[in-house]
Amino acid sequence: MSNLEIGVAGIAIALALIALRVPIGVALGLVSIIGISEMTSMHVAWGMISATPFDFAGTWELTAAPMFLFMGYLCTSTNMTQGLFHAMRLFMARLPGGLAVSSVMASAFFAAASGSSVATSAAMSRIAVPEMLKYRYDKGLATGTVAASGTLGSLIPPSVLLVLYGVYAQVSVGQLFMAGFIPGVLSALLYIAMIMVRTKLNPSLAGDAAVRSSAKEKWDAFRDIWPLPLLIGSVLGGIFLGIFSPTEAGAVGTTIAALIAFTRRTLTLRALREALISTAVSTASIFIILIGSLFFTRFLALSGVPAAFSELILGVSTETWWILLAVALIYLVLGMFIDSIGLLLLTLPLILPLVQGADLNLVWFGIIVVKLLEVGLVTPPIGLNVYVIKGALGKSVTLPEVFKGVSWFIVMDIVALLLIVLIPALSLFLPQLMF
């Protein structure tokens, strides 16, 4: 077999192993080691195993990922996010579909603090969905709102996906954070607009949740959630003003979160231990996938598959629309079956050479990729956020009801994606202003 044939066979085997539920990092690592030993020698493969993980894990920019994870888990374990939905409900309840709108807003803040789409969906499904169902909201609208809003954590900084993309593509994480802000807010506003229009046209979707609140209740609710806007604003403001780098921002954000929790007397040893353990588990999982992906990159580079793939795509057309369409199809199809982090690191070895060959802006392209990954989190048959919602709510809702409800939000995601593609300034304005 030629090197190219070994490379193509390796991709097929890796996808098959992933379909059989073999952990993505393990699948990519095994295929890469066997493939490299076949193309060169086992000595070369073992040399890669001994050197690559240590060198890559020591990358300075990569330290932002565990620090942002720690910041998010610390916010959760110290109850900093607990009153979000209640507060948003008081402020947004008068709008059409007020509880659903409140869920979008609360999820956006929660996602910005945690950086995790799955964590946002899991938390809000236990808080917001039962409240909406209590007021006779349509089950599809209630569950679809939370499932889709959880994906906002992928774009609204600080985002772990943006950190991983930046490190892998060698792009400024700070620029990516700034680039993701407007598209993330835009996605949230499109969700809210769709909810308001639908519930205005069909009031039965929103039940009878007529919530009245006094100025004192609103003030009390604001006092309960003020730490979160302060934390997010401090992290993003510090990056934007150049006070600290994105890598340092993770440590700064964690310190601010700990100080806020300490002043509120919620920073207990138990909360700290829970946050540390959760961070360690998540970081280890991400690093295993990262190292397996790095092996896979070396394997594909030796096989010549990325160059052949680029020639195949560019041979049809070199127009930007065609390249983006091809990339979108890859992510939307694979996103139905593979989680976002695994899919990102599985595809970048193939996609980046194509994008670099077409001379596309890597910051702008990174936002497009992460938006595509967001869509994959709610797309059937395996929308991860949908299954998180179903698992949290048990028999009170069915999978078809959740997928039906989330379909409206997928349409809004496609609208947002088209706007990001057609108006690059949505992604590039803040990075250009910052740098």
From TrEMBL:
Keyword RNA-binding set for record: no
UniProt-listed InterPro entries: DctM (IPR010656), TRAP_DctM (IPR004681)
Keywords tagged on the record: Cell inner membrane, Cell membrane, Membrane, Transmembrane, Transmembrane helix, Transport
Location relative to the cell: Cell inner membrane
TRAP C4-dicarboxylate transport system permease DctM subunit domain location: 12-426
Main location: membrane
Domain of life: Bacteria
Pfam families, A to Z: DctM
Mode of membrane association: Multi-pass membrane protein
Residue stretches spanning the membrane: 12-36, 56-76, 97-120, 140-164, 176-197, 230-263, 275-301, 321-350, 362-388, 408-430
Quaternary structure annotation from Swiss-Prot or TrEMBL: The complex comprises the extracytoplasmic solute receptor protein and the two transmembrane proteins.
Family assignment from sequence similarity: Belongs to the TRAP transporter large permease family.
Protein role: Part of the tripartite ATP-independent periplasmic (TRAP) transport system.
Protein name, entry field: TRAP transporter large permease protein
Organism: Billgrantia zhangzhouensis
